[in-house]
């Protein structure tokens, strides 16, 4: 129990034994505790120095030591200092030590949290200012070793088109796989057709869509850059650089989805062209199947009513779902209503 106040096992044994006697000698306490007399004497002297015990009766003057080893003198006897007085400083010290430990614990816990949170905080880097944005853009393009993915939307803001073309050529010359999805309006810019023709000859792969949700550049699927419009930036161009994370994976997934749905762009002597848009409207037979399905009629009854096989019904249903980009018949019904198929 007293070890919590800083006493060792031998000190606690001697102190506790002395509690049962008004006064006692080292020899008495050694006999009671089973501790060697010399060790008991050392412990008593240490306790006396610390103010926990006091000498009640000094040994006779003829004794060669304070514990009465002389033949003629009685041994020194010890008594406890009142615990309420003697133990108070030790209790205060232990409380202070506990407080220091709690403070250290809080600091370590906070430091750990900060360190653990650092990777999360480092996922997104905000870049503000035309010069800084252009610098990071060129870093991503010139630093790519394997692959570059890009969305092109509208007019360039922080990076002039001619500067972007230089970095683009640098990447293509090094054999980097460069795929670009451009919004249809992007090709309307001045001199864009000439630059696109040159890039296609250099190995750029370009596809076209009607619109895109954002501008994007992904380098080696390790970093991505997305322009921002931050109100507090004072109107300066700004962007975020996204490092490897779930957010980066989502941006790459978005690119691949747009790439798969985009039209191939090619150049010939007459200019820049995009593949014709495939008719995305369902056929009359598919609409007949859709109407019966939405009425809650089973595939078997639909086939019987239309005079076709069940496999034909399933094939038409599958194409309807592909046209709608639906994963379920419920989604197919929602898209059909939204697209005005019925």
What do you see in this structure?
With 342 residues, this protein is of the alpha+beta class. It contains 13 helices and twelve strands. It has helices spanning 9-19, 26-33, 37-49, 83-86, 88-121, 130-143, 161-173, 192-202, 246-261, 284-294, 299-306, 310-324, 329-339; strands spanning 24-25, 53-57, 77-80, 124-128, 147-152, 177-183, 205-209, 216-219, 223-228, 238-243, 263-268, 271-274. The strands form two sheets. A nine-stranded mixed β-sheet has the order 4-10-9-8-5-6-7-11-12, sandwiched between helices. Strand 6 (177-183), helix 8 (192-202) and strand 7 form a beta-alpha-beta unit. The longest helix is centred in the N-terminal third of the chain and has 34 residues, at 88-121.
List key phrases describing it.
342 residues; alpha+beta; 9-stranded mixed sheet; 3-stranded antiparallel sheet; 12 strands; elongated
Major β-sheet profile: 9 strands, mixed
Low-confidence blocks of residues: 61-66
Number of strands: 12
Radius of gyration: 43 Å
Identify the overall geometry: elongated
């Amino acid at each position: 129990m007293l070890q919590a106040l800083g006493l060792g096992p031998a000190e606690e044994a001697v102190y506790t034994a002395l509690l049962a006697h008004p006064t006692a000698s080292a020899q008495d306490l050694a006999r009671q505790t089973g501790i060697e007399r010399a060790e008991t004497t050392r412990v008593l002297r240490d306790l006396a120095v610390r103010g926990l015990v006091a000498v009640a009766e000094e040994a006779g003057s003829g004794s060669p030591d304070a514990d009465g080893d002389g033949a003629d003198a009685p041994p020194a006897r010890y008594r406890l200092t009142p615990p309420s007085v003697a133990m108070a400083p030790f209790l205060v010290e232990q409380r202070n030590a506990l407080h220091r430990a709690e403070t250290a614990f809080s600091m370590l816990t906070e430091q750990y949290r900060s360190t653990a949170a650092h990777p999360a905080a480092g996922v997104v880097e905000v870049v503000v200012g035309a010069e800084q944005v252009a610098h990071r853009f060129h870093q991503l393009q010139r630093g790519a070793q394997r692959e570059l993915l890009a969305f092109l939307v509208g007019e360039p803001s922080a990076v002039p088109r001619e500067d972007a073309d230089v970095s683009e050529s640098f990447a293509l010359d090094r054999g980097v796989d460069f795929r670009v999805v451009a919004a249809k309006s992007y090709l309307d810019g001045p001199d864009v057709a000439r630059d696109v023709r040159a890039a296609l000859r250099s190995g750029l792969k370009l596809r076209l869509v009607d619109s895109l949700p954002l501008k994007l550049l992904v380098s080696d699927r390790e970093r991505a850059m997305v322009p921002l419009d931050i109100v507090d930036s004072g109107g300066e161009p700004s962007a975020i650089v996204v490092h490897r994370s779930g957010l980066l994976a989502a941006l790459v997934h978005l690119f691949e989805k747009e790439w798969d749905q985009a039209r191939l762009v090619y150049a010939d002597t007459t200019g820049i062209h995009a593949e014709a848009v495939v008719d995305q409207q369902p056929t009359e037979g598919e609409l007949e199947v859709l109407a019966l399905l939405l009425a809650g009629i089973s595939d078997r009854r639909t086939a019987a009513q239309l005079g076709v096989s069940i496999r034909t019904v399933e094939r038409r249903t599958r194409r309807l779902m592909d046209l709608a980009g639906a994963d379920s018949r419920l989604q197919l019904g929602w898209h059909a209503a939204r697209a005005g198929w019925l």
